[in-house]
Amino acid sequence: MQRSRVVLFTVTALASVVALSGCDQSPQVSQQAKQAIPVGVITLKSQPLTLTKELPGRVTASQVAEIRPQVNGIIQSRLFTQGAEVKKGQALYQIDPSTFEAQVATSKAAITKAQASIANAKAKSERYDELLKIKAVSQQDFDEADASYKGAQADLLTAQAQLKTAQINLEYSKVKSPISGQIGKSNVTAGALVSANQATALATVTQLDPIYVDLTQSSSELTRLKKAIANGELNKDLAIHSAVELKMEDGSVYQHKGTLQFSEVTVDPSTGSVTLRAEFPNPEKLLLPGMYVRAVIVEGVKANAILAPQRGISRNTKGEPTAMVVSKDNTVEPRVLKTDRTVGANWLITDGLNDGDKLIVEGLQKIAPGAPVNAVPAETAKTQ
Q1: Where is the Multidrug resistance protein MdtA-like beta-barrel domain (predicted)?
Q2: What is the pLDDT of residue 74?
Q3: Which of 45, 188, 283, 303 lies in disulfide reach of 192, CB 3.0 to 4.6 Å?
């Protein structure tokens, strides 16, 4: 009996020791579970942001004139240097003018003859008018004299029109440039027979300054942009909106700024895109028709843009962009975001983050949703 009491006492003592030991360790385990994890954060601030878009494009001459003769004849001489700059109205070719000079002389002679006929017919008409008053001539004789006078006047008008036509043809014998620009090679030489409005051009003049760049933008992007402006999400400043920056084929930036002229009102059914035309000064002739370039256009200004560093944004199993922010009670709060585009090293956030949110960018691998954290500023973070 005594031995049983000793065993019972020993078991009771051990149980008490275990219970006391458990009571001593429970606060320590709970304290460790609630210990805040240090994380680096960036406090987001809304800011005005100018949104730009890079579009592909092709260089197009602002004016192109294919030179063709407007009269028939033999080319006497070429009056320009191939590849040189020519001015509007400058003579390029001389067609043999002999035939046209003869036509001018013939028309002038016809005018002189018509004027003489008018003088004679007028005098006769006036005499018959006086004689008719005293019944010295019949009414028929007067009418014939008057008709002869009016016919002579009509002959003069015809001769004058023929002279004008002959002078125009004589002027056309000197083929002139309708625009200023750079002329290419000549397709004919002296002695060649040319005809009015022939299919083959004698030469081509291309105006390179200013020059156009035709850009292509998808219709869906254009629709989205118009909706954003209509909803007030973007402020369309016309002075900024028209500015265009050009990137050359080698990646360098073209030194002159351009202006956006217009956009097409129809969508190309084969590509689903619309064409925008920009105009650029080209005094150095660096831009040539057919060159491939990329242009940066201004879409508008977003007044309260939220930019979040890319290193603080990840994706969930659904592929949605997500972020971890510090809540008001200093715990981790997950957010599902909507993004618009990348701006440098940042994402432009359209939904899910607000001004003043503390975005966790350091220590992400140590935290989980709902975990307590100790937020400190991330020294290496950049907001731009």
Answers
A1: 210-300
A2: 94
A3: 188
